[in-house]
Inverse folding.
């Protein structure tokens, strides 16, 4: 089942509860939460305290995307806050294997994200240890950027790598620049979890957009 994971980065931060309810009523499968530290990426967003608050009002699983340096120091805090999926960047620590093991040991789904320049080959030796790969289709840090066209090829390469390694259960999540007009080709390339921030929140009818996106990839 393909999943839509709206990014709260484009939500109204003065009333997150209202937007979360709207997304849930609209049929969102997951809530994508972008954590940025002003060091790994040139922007600062939210920390565990806000994730905990979101967890108190959300009924769907929290898909937490850590864009922070040395994520190993913080995974426990985000798991305690309620993360159901916790994704770290391959570029953010020399100890990806150790950190994904730590996440899984706590019963949470572990993801690894790749920046646009990072080849999928870095995943070769950790396929057994992860539940999700997050392909960045923009440079991480900001919402509202355009989808990088080469990402499509990378998604296809990853789909093949997973199929060749009997790892078809691993979710392929794609993040950045996903809109109603390109979601179908991203789906056809092999994506299973679609993150969309501005594509949903800037739509005329954000609630209806989730259903429209689902129709487009059915
Ligand atoms: C960017 C974040 C994304 C962002 C996507 O660094 O990881 O999740 O919110 O926003 P859009 O869909 O507007 O590109
Ligand atoms: Zn994200």
């Amino acid at each position: 089942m393909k999943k839509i994971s709206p990014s709260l980065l484009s939500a109204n931060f003065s009333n997150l509860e209202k937007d979360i309810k709207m997304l849930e009523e609209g049929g969102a499968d997951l809530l994508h939460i972008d954590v940025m530290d002003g060091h790994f990426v040139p922007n600062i967003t939210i920390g565990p305290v806000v994730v905990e608050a979101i967890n108190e009002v959300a009924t769907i699983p929290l898909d937490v995307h850590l864009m922070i340096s040395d994520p190993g120091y913080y995974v426990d805090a985000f798991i305690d806050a309620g993360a159901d999926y916790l994704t770290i960047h391959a570029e953010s620590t020399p100890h990806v294997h150790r950190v994904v093991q730590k996440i899984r040991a706590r019963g949470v789904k572990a993801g690894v994200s790749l920046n646009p320049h990072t080849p999928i080959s870095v995943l070769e030796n950790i396929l057994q240890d992860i539940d999700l790969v997050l392909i960045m289709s923009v440079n991480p840090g900001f919402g509202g950027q355009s989808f990088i066209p080469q990402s499509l090829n990378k998604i296809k390469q990853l789909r093949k790598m997973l199929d060749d390694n009997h790892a078809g259960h691993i979710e392929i999540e794609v993040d950045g620049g996903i809109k109603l007009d390109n979601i179908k080709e991203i789906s056809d390339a092999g994506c299973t979890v679609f993150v969309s921030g501005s594509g949903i929140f800037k739509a005329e009818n954000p609630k209806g957009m989730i259903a429209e996106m689902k129709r487009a990839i059915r």
